[in-house]
Write a structure and sequence with these properties.
Layout lengths: L1 E2 L10 H30 L13 E3 L2 E4 L5 E2 L2 E2 L4 E4 L3 E5 L10 E7 L6 E9 L6 E5 L8 E5 L2 E3 L10 E4 L3 E7 L8 E8 L10 E4 L9 E4 L3 E2 L5 E2 L11 E4 L5 E4 L3 E2 L5 E2 L6 E3 L16 E5 L2 E5 L12 E5 L4 E4 L9 E2 L2 E5 L2 E5 L2 E2 L10 E5 L4 E5 L13 E6 L5 E6 L2 E2 L3 E2 L3 E5 L4 E4 L3 E2 L5 E2 L2 E5 L4 E5 L2 E3 L5 E3 L3 E5 L4 E4 L11 E5 L2 E5 L20 E5 L4 E5 L14 E5 L2 E5 L10 E5 L9 H5 L7 E4 L2 E4 L24 H6 L23 H7 L4 H5 L4 E4 L4 E4 L10 E3 L2 E3 L8 H10 L10 H16 L54 H4 L6 E4 L4 E4 L3 H4 L8 E2 L14 H5 L4 E5 L7 E5 L6 E3 L17 E3 L11 E3 L14 E2 ...
């Protein structure tokens, strides 16, 4: 037996000490800074609120919460509840940017049914990712009333209104969650109980006279109205008496005379100015705020269908709004579709067609249903088309159009599918045949998306599509400013001028030849930005005639009207906007009236009508411009000229000359001699594996995560391959902008000629045009070739660039992974890193590329991409884990030792669902969050105690009682830890919340096991199994660990090296070897026979504290030449990790044993071989060892196994050339060691370093400098 012990080396370098001093300095600096902050706060503490300011500081009589718990080092911790009980105060995330991956909760407690007002003085978080939720109650099961994200209140306010949120339950619960991306300045929120709204806006006084239940209200000054005295009325007395008068009997509005209009009767009828009006409509449950609904006009009524709502208890699926009387009406429906949002709506005759949308239940909750609402009968019917729709969609657009053959169809444009991702297709639903088809469109290759806006111009037969959230290049996603035109009859796309202002979930209407775009989500946050407004009040106008965008003035109303997810319709020449989202769900109606063309009295004034309206002079009067069918000139002749880059627009327009450009495609290089075909562009825009495989010309490349075209021709039709590019002549007769759009519609662009070959090709093509009298004589100066400064051809601009293509690496079809939307558990959802995201609060798995559009209104309270925790409260075993979840509370048992149950709850106590009322519509309630307090679930009368904000002081998991209130006195039941939360060494299990610990079962081959699973950490190398019950026979370990141990079976005359350097080797303290001497029958043959392990062992030698040991055993003493069952066993133990062991047995006249132990650093430098020690004994076998017969392979004297014993380094002892006398030359050794790396499986040899030749009968392969993989 050989006993070995080692020492552990710990090195502290000078650089480490220096760094520690730097950290110490920083730490002391932070402490000093914090001390100064606390001191400054303490200096202003008022004694009047010392006791009532819970978990915070009282500054100037106001309770201010900087963080939920103390600040430590650099990280402000904010992980638990804060409770505020003052009648007024404020809360903030802290003086700096809020922390990454933060969860904070504040509970403001007033008195029952008190009105509590929250005023958001500052708010800046990452738009669409970091949210603040406000509930009207003491838990998240209370009604949700606001979700703030992005830049809500900018630093420079201007005329923005500070948001004010009101609760009426006497409580307000605020929950904030931030992800791990980046952080901003956070928030500052003031609150007050039983106060006037917005302090009456400075236009009134707060009064309690004649109030209900002692509540205060605002008494407004003259010409101001509203609950907060923030709405002006009857300005300038409505221009009385000439323009109108002020009606003080009702809503205090201006009543204008017939010749005047506007909110204050200051604009004539018709007017050359536009104006906004905020109709005075009393909010009611019937007009409940909603977003991502749809609206259209029929018979003077605006019909509103569906939409997202925070709470569905008073929700109505169908509403209508009378545009003349400004009144709402609820449409009662006995049966019909489930509540949804993100659907589409289109009108045909008296029927409203609703398609798709997102339901509020189920994992793959986007539907492909087609419902029809008949307006006169006010009934729903479900259509079941054959064939069914190809995609279930949300965030798409729909229009009922008439095809060239007069057939009415409903177009579905783009949208998002949880299965097929962002859809680029146009679908047609034939109303008469009740059937679907996917349109094979031509023209430009466009990119589909979610949340775009669109309008249909019946006169030209075109649909105009703007913006949206789309899949971009390089697996990126975001909002865009794209503008497309789809021609219904030809089914072709055209790319128009971008707006320059990207957005999605905005609205668009068509008025007087102008597309008016309002609002939308304009999220553009980056780590370098100061934040962005998620919701916008931008007002844009697109001139259809001239392909031009104009930014119109924002509405000059008395308050902000920023929003997204709203609807917009047109009636009687005005635009009406309803609802939407701006942190709160809106239920207001906005009205915009553009300038009237009839108000312009001369041709000059008519042509110069302000942006937002397109007028032209016809028959001595100014009328709105109407598009014509597509045979008209585009842009229209009256549009302002766009100067070309080189040739003046007037020259080539007058001569009807072709504009010549070279288009190129942008992609990644693989074969630079090829250009993209249309198929490649179409494939490249398909964002998911399944949508890619639907196209027969495409295939999915899993490594690049992109859709690629199958190989085909070098260039598409109409293109010419010139060297490494594909060129094409642009025959557009218009400006440079039109030429650029022409190239874009072909998937290309215009740039500069780069080679002589390209220039010569263009000259030859131009010569063909000249022969056809298509080209005149204008100068063009844009070639980058030397000497090509001018050319005697007209309208030519040289902008070609190299066109590149990337071909698929494999043409074999591969199956697609399960879409994220079909994965129903957190573990299954997050199995692929960053591919899917799991939302525990909604129990849904969504694609990472679509998280923002999957929860556009902050529906997900917290998301995960790994480390799935318990998905409900009952799965949490400790109070600390329980209270980290905002929806959970802890019911401690009467023992007061830390045991208890986690359950859904509120500050007042545990909650249980309300029993559903019987009725036909109960099955349609998709989000029944109605919960009631049930004290019986955690009755204090029986000794139980309820915790919602802070855990009880004693937390010993039921294994000890506490001394001094919180210190576990003695952990029993085989537990350990400050809270008795873990098992003692040698035991495993989960002792939390009264759990048990079990002894490790390791068959005496391990002292410890995994604390949770009980898997043993075997201490003997070669012993394996969960209970150390097996030998690693695959790696030459033999034995029976149930009755003994395992041994590595050594080969004679080989040296073995065992490197125990990996992290998995850290528990090894022993390794055993066995070696059986060979029986020598004759000089021509040898037989190896292993001895029995079960035989009686006889100790030979024992050593301690060794680094190297060598010994020899003679055959006379042990007589192993005759006794075949003799086996030598070596036991190496009591060493520490990491270590390297070398061992060898060599047999000649004697049996030689050598062992070396080397302590290694865990990260050691690579080297070719470890050392080989050779011991030669005088005797007859020495010549046999060194003399090798011709063509014989020399016998190795040592072998160093590596790579799981599948390869090894062999050492051979060879003679060097000698002089005739048989002795080595002077100064030279007679023998040398040679090394060779040999694969046991292939029996191939490695090549040698420094040109050393390989051994005979071996095949070289790359030399292994380190025997490890």
């Amino acid at each position: 037996m050989v006993l070995v012990s080692g020492t552990r080396l710990l090195t502290w370098t000078r650089s480490s000490q220096s760094r520690s001093r730097e950290v110490l300095k920083i730490y002391l600096g932070i402490l000093m800074m914090l001390h100064l902050v606390v001191h400054a706060e303490a200096s202003s503490v008022s004694k009047s609120c010392d006791k009532s300011c819970f978990s915070g500081k009282c500054i100037n009589g106001t309770c201010v919460i900087l963080n939920c718990v103390a600040v430590f080092m650099f990280s402000p911790l904010c992980v638990s509840f804060c409770r505020l009980t003052d009648l007024s105060g404020s809360l903030t995330d802290g003086p700096f940017n809020y922390k990454y991956k933060t969860k904070c909760t504040w509970l403001i407690e007033g008195f029952p049914n008190a009105v509590l007002r929250l005023r958001f003085n500052h708010f800046a978080t990452e738009c669409s990712w970091d949210h603040m939720y406000v509930y009207d109650g003491d838990s998240i099961y209370a009604p949700l009333i606001a979700v703030f994200s992005g830049l809500v209140v900018p630093e420079t306010r201007g005329n923005e209104t500070v948001p004010e949120v009101v609760t009426t339950s006497g409580y307000a619960l605020l929950y904030f969650f931030s992800d791990a991306a980046y952080n901003l300045t956070g928030f500052s929120i003031a609150y007050s109980i039983n106060s006037c709204p917005n302090n009456c806006s400075g236009h009134g006084r707060c009064s309690t006279a004649n109030s209900v239940a002692g509540r205060v209200y605002c008494e407004c000054e003259e010409y101001w109205k509203g609950d907060a005295c923030d709405i002006p009325y009857c300005r300038d007395n409505c221009g009385s008496p000439d323009h109108g008068y002020c009606d003080l009997t009702g809503e205090k509005l201006c009543v204008c005379n017939d010749s005047w209009q506007g909110p204050d009767c200051s604009l004539s009828v018709p007017s050359t100015e536009a104006f906004w009006v905020l109709p005075s409509i009393k909010p009611s449950a019937q007009s409940l705020g909603r977003a991502s609904h749809r609206a259209l006009v029929h018979s003077g009524l605006m019909w509103v269908v569906g939409g997202y709502s925070f709470n569905y208890s008073n929700y109505q699926m169908v509403l209508n709004y009378n545009l003349e009387t400004s009144t709402w009406d609820v449409v009662p429906v006995s049966s019909g579709p489930l509540y949804r949002y993100g659907h589409s709506l289109a009108l045909h005759q008296d029927d409203i067609y609703m398609f798709g949308g997102k339901l509020e239940a189920g994992p793959a909750n986007v539907t492909d249903e087609m419902w029809v609402f008949n307006v006169p009968r006010r009934t729903w019917s479900l259509r079941k088309p054959v064939p069914p729709p190809p995609y279930a969609l949300e965030g798409h657009a729909a229009h009922v159009v008439e095809l060239a053959n007069g057939e009415p169809v409903m177009l579905i444009i783009f949208g998002y599918s949880p299965i097929y991702s962002y859809i680029n297709k146009v679908q047609e639903y034939n109303i008469r045949s009740n059937s679907w088809q996917v349109v094979s469109s031509g023209g430009a290759v466009v990119q589909g998306g979610y949340g775009h806006s669109s309008v249909y111009d019946e006169a030209s037969g075109c649909v105009f599509v703007h913006g949206g959230y789309k899949a971009l290049n390089n697996n990126k996603y975001g909002l865009v400013d794209h503008m497309y035109r789809y021609h219904v009859h030809t089914r072709t796309w055209l790319i128009l001028k971008e707006s320059g202002l990207a957005r999605y979930l905005h609205s668009a209407v068509l008025l007087s030849g102008t597309m008016l775009v309002f609002g939308g989500n304009t999220h553009n946050d980056t780590s370098l930005s100061n934040g962005a407004k998620c919701f916008s009040a931008d007002f844009l106008a697109y001139d259809i005639a001239c392909d031009e965008w104009t930014v119109l003035p924002r509405p000059g109303l008395h308050r902000d009207i920023n929003r997204f997810g709203h609807s917009a319709v047109v009636s009687n020449g005005s635009m009406y906007i309803f609802g939407g989202f701006s942190g709160m769900l809106l239920n207001d109606v906005l009205a915009y009236t553009p300038p009237s063309c009839q108000a312009f009295s001369s041709p000059g004034l008519c042509a110069a009508a302000e942006p937002g309206v397109r007028c032209h002079w016809v028959k001595s009067r100014c009328v709105p411009w109407k598009p014509k069918p597509l045979d008209h000139i585009f842009p229209a002749p009256f549009c302002p000229a766009r100067p070309g880059m080189l040739c003046r627009a007037s020259v080539y327009r007058a001569n009807s000359l072709p504009f010549i450009c070279i288009c190129f495609f942008v992609s990644t290089v693989r074969d630079s001699s090829r250009c993209k075909r249309r198929e490649e562009l179409e494939c490249f825009r398909l964002a998911s594996c399944r949508s890619c495989l639907l196209n027969v010309n495409c295939q999915w490349e899993p490594q690049q995560q992109e859709c690629q075209a199958l190989p085909g021709q070098l260039c598409g039709d109409g293109w010419h391959q010139v060297g490494e590019v594909c060129l094409r002549i642009n025959s557009s007769r218009e400006s440079y902008d039109n030429a650029q759009h022409y190239c874009k519609n072909l998937g290309g662009n215009i740039a500069s000629l780069l080679t002589d070959k390209q220039v010569n090709f263009v000259l030859e093509e131009l010569q063909k045009y000249q022969l056809q009298d298509k080209v005149g004589g204008c100068h063009a100066v844009n070639s980058e070739m030397t000497g090509m400064q001018t050319m005697s051809v007209t309208g030519i601009h040289y902008f070609p660039l190299v066109c590149l293509i990337k071909y698929p690496q494999s043409q074999s079809a591969r199956p697609c992974k399960t879409p994220c939307a079909l994965r129903t558990s957190c573990a299954n959802c997050t199995s692929q890193a960053m591919e899917c995201m799991w939302c525990g609060s909604t129990q849904r798995c969504v694609d990472s590329s679509a998280y923002v559009i999957s929860f556009p209104y902050g529906q997900c309270l917290e998301w995960q991409t790994q480390d799935c925790t318990a998905q409900n409260c009952s799965g949490l075993r400790t109070c600390a884990e329980c209270l980290e979840r905002v929806e959970c509370g802890w019911c401690g048992d009467p023992s007061n030792t830390g045991r208890g149950v986690c359950m859904e709850g509120s500050y007042r106590g545990p909650l249980k669902p309300v029993t559903a009322k019987a009725g036909p519509r109960d099955r349609d309630r998709l989000r029944d969050r109605d919960m009631v307090v049930d004290q019986g679930l955690c009755s204090s009368d029986r000794g139980y105690n309820w915790a919602f904000i802070q855990c009880p002081a004693c937390q010993c998991n039921g294994h000890s009682r506490c001394v001094n209130g919180s210190v576990c006195e003695h952990c029993g039941n085989l537990t350990a830890g400050t809270h008795c939360q873990s098992c003692m060494p040698g035991y495993y299990g989960d002792p939390t919340n009264g759990g048990k610990c079990n002894a490790c079962k390791c068959n005496s081959h391990a002292n410890v096991c995994h604390v949770n699973t009980g898997k043993c950490f075997c201490t003997t190398k070669g012993v394996k199994g969960d209970q150390c019950q097996l030998c690693d026979s695959e790696n030459r370990y033999l034995g029976n660990p149930l009755r003994g141990t395992c041994y590595y079976n050594l080969l004679i005359d080989y040296q073995f090296t065992f490197s125990l350097l990996q992290e998995d080797d850290r528990y090894y303290t022993a390794i055993n070897f066995m070696a059986t001497p060979e029986q020598v029958m004759s000089r021509e043959a040898k037989i190896s026979r292993a001895g029995t392990i079960s035989g009686e062992e006889m100790p030979i030698i024992a050593r301690m504290n060794i680094k190297e040991h060598r010994d020899s055993f003679s055959s006379e003493k042990f007589n192993f030449r005759l006794h075949h069952n003799i086996t030598f066993y070596v036991y190496v133990s009591n060493f520490s990790w990491p270590i390297k062991i070398q061992i060898a047995f060599s047999q000649h006249n004697i049996f030689v044993f050598l062992i070396q132990l080397m302590r290694e650093r865990q990260q050691m430098a690579s080297r070719p071989f470890a050392s080989v020690t050779v011991a030669l004994e005088a005797g007859d076998d020495q010549e046999e060892l060194l003399q090798v017969r011709t063509k014989a392979v020399p016998k190795p004297i040592a072998m160093e196994p590596c790579w799981g014993s599948r390869a090894g380094v062999l050492t051979v002892l060879l003679y060097l050339p000698r002089i005739p006398s048989g002795i080595p030359p002077p100064g030279q050794s007679g023998k040398i060691l040679r090394y060779n790396c040999l694969s046991h499986n292939q029996q191939q040899a490695c090549s040698f370093p420094l040109g050393v030749p390989a051994l005979a009968n071996t095949v070289p392969f790359p030399f292994l400098w380190s025997c490890s993989v």
